[in-house]
Design brief:
3-stranded antiparallel beta sheet; single chain; MarR family transcriptional regulator; 6 strands; 4 helices; globular; DUF5830; Arc Repressor Mutant, subunit A; alpha+beta
């Protein structure tokens, strides 16, 4: 388990636009960072410890109020990519720039799902 992966996962949770989401949805988003269950648990525990999220009865409440800005935090690149969320082949990749690294590529609809825009 990499500290960078944990930091990236906590940062993703801190920047979700959903104020409240069920654990299954949160896990779906975290699978873009890691598919290792132990690392996912560490991310959730660390996010709660830092006050980024509250967990109760299978619901996460995001406390940070920070959001990904599509103007400055998302980089769009042309090329041959595979969406990190759905696995589709894409020619336009959207990458989220966080302080602890970059997450992506995502297709245009998956970037919105990952950030909680829809």
């Amino acid at each position: 388990m990499s500290d960078d992966t944990v930091e990236l996962g906590v940062e993703l949770l801190a920047n979700l636009e959903d104020g409240r989401l069920d654990l299954a949805t949160a896990l779906d988003r975290l699978e873009t960072v890691t598919t290792e269950p132990r690392t996912t648990r560490t991310i959730l525990d660390e996010a709660e410890k830092r006050g980024v999220v509250d967990r109760e009865d299978g619901i996460l409440r995001v406390r940070s109020g920070e959001y990904v800005s599509f103007g400055s935090d998302v980089v769009v690149r042309e090329g041959e990519f595979t969406c990190r969320r759905c696995g589709a082949s894409i020619s336009t990749g959207h990458f989220i720039r966080f302080d602890n690294g970059e997450l992506g590529p995502f297709g245009s609809s998956c970037i919105e799902k990952v950030t909680g825009r829809r």
